[in-house]
Amino acid sequence: MKPKTSLFFILLASLLALLISPLFGHIRLSPQALTDFSQTSQEGFIFWNIRLPRTLLCWITGAALAIGGMAFQALFRNDLSTPFTLGVSGGAACGVALLTVIELPLLAGLGMALQPLGAFLGSLIAIAFIMGFHALRPRSNMSDLLLAGVALSFIFNSLILFMQYMANPDKIARMIHWMMGGMQIVGYQQLLFIGPIVLIACIIIFRLIPALDLLSTGDDLASTRGLNVRRTQKLIFLAVSLMCAGVVSLCGPIGFVGLVAPHICRRLLGPSHRYLFWACLFFGGGFLCICDLLCRVLPSSGELPLGVLTALTGTPFFIYLLAKRK
Prior knowledge:
mainly alpha
């Protein structure tokens, strides 16, 4: 199948998932709920204030993670790279664990949500550490940076285990629940926070599409083609890391999409980032919308953790693609 044809079907499937997902859940919605703009009925409130913003957040999150995984896999030339490879997710989880354990009364009194705040601050600390390491070792290659990110993740995981050991069972349950990932949103305030961050990061990565193609061939060859490799690496790292910091602060670590979605799109469209960018954008958004829909409708009570379901549904398809590859 030609890349443009595959991209068209991915786009169509993503838009269908975006349209269908808000309509289903534990509570059945009548068609009148879609036209109840004043939200006078319970169904109108559920659709416009819960289902629709949740679906939009799912789509934005999936698109951001898929784009971030695509960029990091080209940057590090490593098939196992994800948006969380350099410790952003570990820093976010450590920040959530710290604020959950200490429970600052001042922040709680101001009405601030501790988990998103802790996740965002922890992600920024991880980003600052990696940028500092990159600045102190200007001649180091990307493999050293990758190893530094892995080591940082181990440090954060050790700190999280220590805080879980010191915390009471209620706080431990809150930490674990956040680490499973999920979409708990009412209203559009969180979308106003994450939307501009993801949009700016995607624009930066889109403008660097030719650079991603060159980086995939190696730093030396990219330099001979006139690419400022060092500057490009910093731009990609900052754009992806800040985007993922914002996503993780709202939704928790949803690790599957950023790893496998770029691989699936690459199998369907080829390695050219001109097509791969748009394929990852729409595939990641549509895939996460479908997974969130299944989280709402499959259990008889409650919801499945989104991060668990993404891995359970996507991994078999990815293994099938690997087995089918010639």
